[in-house]
Amino acid sequence: MSLTILTTGGTIDKIYFDAKSDYQIGEPQIGEILKAFNVGFDFEVLPLMRKDSLDIEDQDRQLILNTIEAHDNDRFLITHGTDTMVETAQVLIPLARSKVIVMTGALNPARFTGSDAVFNIGCAVAVTQMADCGIYIAMNGRVFRPDHVRKNRQENRFEEV
Hints:
Blueprint: E1 2-9, E2 14-17, E3 22-25, H1 30-36, E4 42-51, H2 58-70, E5 75-79, H3 85-91, E6 100-104, H4 117-130, E7 134-139, E8 142-144, E9 149-152, E10 157-160
Parallel strand pairs: 1-4, 1-5, 5-6, 6-7
Antiparallel strand pairs: 2-3, 7-8, 9-10
Protein backbone atom coordinates (compact mmCIF):
# COMPACT_ATOMS: atom_id res chain seq x y z
CA MET A 1 0.00 0.00 0.00
CA SER A 2 1.11 3.52 -0.73
CA LEU A 3 -0.42 6.40 1.20
CA THR A 4 -0.35 10.09 0.30
CA ILE A 5 -0.52 12.35 3.33
CA LEU A 6 -1.54 15.99 2.98
CA THR A 7 -0.86 18.30 5.91
CA THR A 8 -2.66 21.57 6.49
CA GLY A 9 -1.56 22.54 10.00
CA GLY A 10 -3.90 22.62 12.96
CA THR A 11 -3.32 21.71 16.58
CA ILE A 12 -1.59 18.45 15.68
CA ASP A 13 1.43 20.47 14.46
CA LYS A 14 1.29 23.39 16.92
CA ILE A 15 4.25 24.59 18.96
CA TYR A 16 3.41 26.63 22.05
CA PHE A 17 5.58 29.31 23.58
CA ASP A 18 4.74 29.62 27.28
CA ALA A 19 6.38 32.99 27.81
CA LYS A 20 4.23 34.60 25.13
CA SER A 21 1.12 32.42 25.52
CA ASP A 22 1.37 32.14 21.77
CA TYR A 23 1.66 29.34 19.26
CA GLN A 24 2.90 28.69 15.76
CA ILE A 25 2.15 25.88 13.37
CA GLY A 26 5.39 23.92 13.13
CA GLU A 27 6.70 21.26 10.78
CA PRO A 28 4.27 18.41 10.07
CA GLN A 29 4.68 15.70 12.70
CA ILE A 30 3.00 12.78 10.96
CA GLY A 31 6.02 11.65 8.93
CA GLU A 32 8.18 11.44 12.05
CA ILE A 33 5.43 9.62 13.93
CA LEU A 34 5.03 7.01 11.19
CA LYS A 35 8.81 6.53 10.89
CA ALA A 36 9.12 6.11 14.67
CA PHE A 37 6.57 3.29 14.58
CA ASN A 38 8.30 1.60 11.61
CA VAL A 39 5.09 1.30 9.57
CA GLY A 40 4.95 -1.41 6.92
CA PHE A 41 3.80 0.72 3.99
CA ASP A 42 5.15 3.44 1.74
CA PHE A 43 4.01 7.00 2.30
CA GLU A 44 4.73 10.49 1.12
CA VAL A 45 3.99 13.67 3.06
CA LEU A 46 2.89 16.71 1.05
CA PRO A 47 2.71 19.83 3.26
CA LEU A 48 0.06 22.07 1.66
CA MET A 49 -0.18 24.79 4.29
CA ARG A 50 0.46 25.59 7.96
CA LYS A 51 -2.79 27.10 9.15
CA ASP A 52 -5.06 26.96 12.12
CA SER A 53 -8.26 25.47 10.74
CA LEU A 54 -10.17 28.64 11.64
CA ASP A 55 -7.95 30.40 9.08
CA ILE A 56 -8.59 27.91 6.25
CA GLU A 57 -10.53 29.56 3.46
CA ASP A 58 -12.39 28.39 0.36
CA GLN A 59 -9.29 28.66 -1.84
CA ASP A 60 -7.38 26.46 0.64
CA ARG A 61 -10.10 23.81 0.45
CA GLN A 62 -9.99 24.05 -3.34
CA LEU A 63 -6.21 23.48 -3.21
CA ILE A 64 -6.75 20.31 -1.16
CA LEU A 65 -9.41 19.08 -3.60
CA ASN A 66 -7.28 19.90 -6.66
CA THR A 67 -4.20 18.21 -5.17
CA ILE A 68 -6.10 14.98 -4.54
CA GLU A 69 -7.83 15.10 -7.91
CA ALA A 70 -4.53 15.52 -9.77
CA HIS A 71 -2.67 12.81 -7.85
CA ASP A 72 -2.38 9.23 -9.13
CA ASN A 73 -2.80 7.65 -5.72
CA ASP A 74 -6.28 6.67 -4.55
CA ARG A 75 -5.57 6.61 -0.77
CA PHE A 76 -5.12 9.84 1.18
CA LEU A 77 -4.78 10.86 4.79
CA ILE A 78 -5.20 14.56 5.61
CA THR A 79 -4.11 16.12 8.88
CA HIS A 80 -6.29 19.12 9.60
CA GLY A 81 -7.33 21.33 12.49
CA THR A 82 -10.44 20.10 14.22
CA ASP A 83 -12.53 23.28 14.25
CA THR A 84 -13.28 23.26 10.50
CA MET A 85 -12.37 19.68 9.59
CA VAL A 86 -16.00 18.82 8.82
CA GLU A 87 -16.38 21.78 6.44
CA THR A 88 -13.27 20.74 4.49
CA ALA A 89 -14.42 17.11 4.36
CA GLN A 90 -17.75 18.19 2.87
CA VAL A 91 -15.94 20.03 0.06
CA LEU A 92 -14.16 16.76 -0.82
CA ILE A 93 -17.35 14.70 -1.21
CA PRO A 94 -17.23 14.87 -5.06
CA LEU A 95 -14.07 12.70 -4.87
CA ALA A 96 -15.80 10.00 -2.81
CA ARG A 97 -16.49 7.72 -5.76
CA SER A 98 -12.86 7.22 -6.74
CA LYS A 99 -10.68 7.87 -3.67
CA VAL A 100 -10.35 6.88 -0.03
CA ILE A 101 -9.82 10.12 1.91
CA VAL A 102 -9.46 10.06 5.68
CA MET A 103 -9.11 13.22 7.73
CA THR A 104 -7.73 13.34 11.24
CA GLY A 105 -6.19 15.77 13.66
CA ALA A 106 -5.59 16.20 17.35
CA LEU A 107 -7.15 18.05 20.23
CA ASN A 108 -3.66 18.41 21.75
CA PRO A 109 -0.40 19.00 19.85
CA ALA A 110 1.53 15.89 18.81
CA ARG A 111 4.56 17.27 20.66
CA PHE A 112 2.67 17.10 23.99
CA THR A 113 2.89 14.04 26.23
CA GLY A 114 -0.49 12.35 26.28
CA SER A 115 -1.63 13.86 22.98
CA ASP A 116 -4.34 12.06 21.08
CA ALA A 117 -2.38 12.61 17.84
CA VAL A 118 -0.69 9.19 17.61
CA PHE A 119 -3.92 7.34 18.40
CA ASN A 120 -5.90 9.35 15.83
CA ILE A 121 -3.23 8.87 13.17
CA GLY A 122 -3.18 5.11 13.82
CA CYS A 123 -6.96 4.91 13.48
CA ALA A 124 -6.87 7.00 10.30
CA VAL A 125 -4.15 4.82 8.74
CA ALA A 126 -6.24 1.71 9.44
CA VAL A 127 -9.27 3.28 7.77
CA THR A 128 -7.24 4.18 4.66
CA GLN A 129 -6.39 0.49 4.29
CA MET A 130 -9.80 -1.00 4.99
CA ALA A 131 -12.44 1.44 3.77
CA ASP A 132 -14.19 1.58 0.44
CA CYS A 133 -13.94 4.77 -1.57
CA GLY A 134 -15.37 7.69 0.37
CA ILE A 135 -14.61 10.56 2.72
CA TYR A 136 -14.09 9.75 6.40
CA ILE A 137 -13.17 11.55 9.60
CA ALA A 138 -11.22 9.48 12.16
CA MET A 139 -11.28 11.10 15.59
CA ASN A 140 -11.67 9.93 19.18
CA GLY A 141 -11.51 6.24 18.26
CA ARG A 142 -14.45 6.51 15.87
CA VAL A 143 -14.92 6.87 12.13
CA PHE A 144 -17.53 9.27 10.79
CA ARG A 145 -18.97 10.39 7.47
CA PRO A 146 -18.64 14.16 7.01
CA ASP A 147 -22.39 14.69 6.67
CA HIS A 148 -23.11 12.94 10.01
CA VAL A 149 -20.57 14.41 12.42
CA ARG A 150 -19.80 17.54 14.39
CA LYS A 151 -17.19 18.66 16.86
CA ASN A 152 -18.70 19.03 20.30
CA ARG A 153 -16.51 21.80 21.71
CA GLN A 154 -17.99 21.50 25.18
CA GLU A 155 -17.11 17.79 25.44
CA ASN A 156 -13.92 18.25 23.33
CA ARG A 157 -14.71 15.34 21.01
CA PHE A 158 -16.40 14.47 17.75
CA GLU A 159 -19.87 12.95 17.77
CA GLU A 160 -22.43 11.62 15.32
CA VAL A 161 -25.40 13.82 14.44
